[in-house]
Please model this.
Amino acid sequence: MGSRAEVLKLFRALHRTRQQVFKNDARALEAARQKINEEFRNHQDETSSERIAELMKIGSDVEVLLRTSVIQGLHTGSDSLMLIPRKDLLLDNVPYCDTPPRKL
Model:
């Protein structure tokens, strides 16, 4: 794990996810772009395969977290916020039921 191709694949995946998650938010898009590039640049000379595997795991976890947990919000007033969930975020939405199902 940790070949150059895999690292570049993760780098691209993070940028694609950033573009989807922070769509129409120029400040967040730029901040995320800078952070991704900075983290990869800071570790570009890493040679330890264990450390590279650890960094790849962290990067992969961050990509999943961004894709599955971040929702955009838009200020609509001084004390209100309108949430803008992405369609792929709502697919796993299951209604809560506090009564256990009956056994047949």
Notes: The helical segments are 4-21, 26-42, 49-69. The first helix runs from residue 4 to 21. Residues 20 and 93 are 19 Å apart (CA to CA). The mean pLDDT is 87.
